[in-house]
């Protein structure tokens, strides 16, 4: 499931779409602005008129990739539903989206692979998606007095950490045949632990 691309992208979107492909193929360090320009069908000067440098372009790519995924998960979520319903919907959307989105899995591998040499880029990713998701989920859980949570943020981290651990071991690290786990069993038990 790849994200739907705008059939008439702006120059900025055109550059970001081309940059995403080149970064995923070549990595951050291996990607050149010449390759991005060729992939995007624009001149290098056009790229520099929109983005200061390769780091700025990569950060903008992170913002575009993560914002699309955040909207898929939380854009149509009804937060007035009971916690078990909301948590199940979030978990199912995250796992459904991520586990069938080859571009996003490749993007996660890229971020992890480059994080040792370029920690500021990994931190940008954390700020754009995990931090935003944790804040949204923490605020929701803090309002659920029936759950009697002593620390809503810790609960949000346990919830998201479990899902991210599943994604990392099953998809990013190719562990589906080594340590398999049925997605629905994981979700059922995670929700039971939080809402018990």
**Based on helices, strands and strand pairing, what is the structural class?**
mainly alpha
Coarse morphology: elongated
Total beta strands: 0
Helix content: over 70%
CATH level-1 class of the domain at 59-195: Mainly Alpha
Assign the CATH architecture of the domain at 59-195: Orthogonal Bundle
Please tell me the overall pLDDT: 93
The number of helical runs is 10
CATH fold category name of the domain at 59-195: Tetracycline Repressor, domain 2
The largest β sheet comes out as: none
Radius of gyration: 18 Å
Q: Distance between termini?
A: 34 Å
Element string (H = helix, E = strand):
HHHHHHHHHH
Low-confidence blocks of residues: none
Report strand %: under 5%
Describe what is shown at a glance.
This protein has 10 helices and no strands. By secondary structure, it is mainly α.
Task: Describe this protein's structure.
- There is one protein chain.
- With 196 residues, the protein is an all-alpha fold.
- It has a domain at 59-195: Tetracycline Repressor, domain 2.
- The protein is 73% helix and 0% strand.
- The protein is built from ten helices and no strands.
- It has helices at residues 11-30, 33-40, 44-50, 54-74, 83-99, 102-114, 119-128, 130-142, 152-172, 183-195.
- Helix 1 crosses helix 4 (54-74) and helix 4 crosses helix 5 (83-99).
- It is elongated, with a radius of gyration of 18 Å.
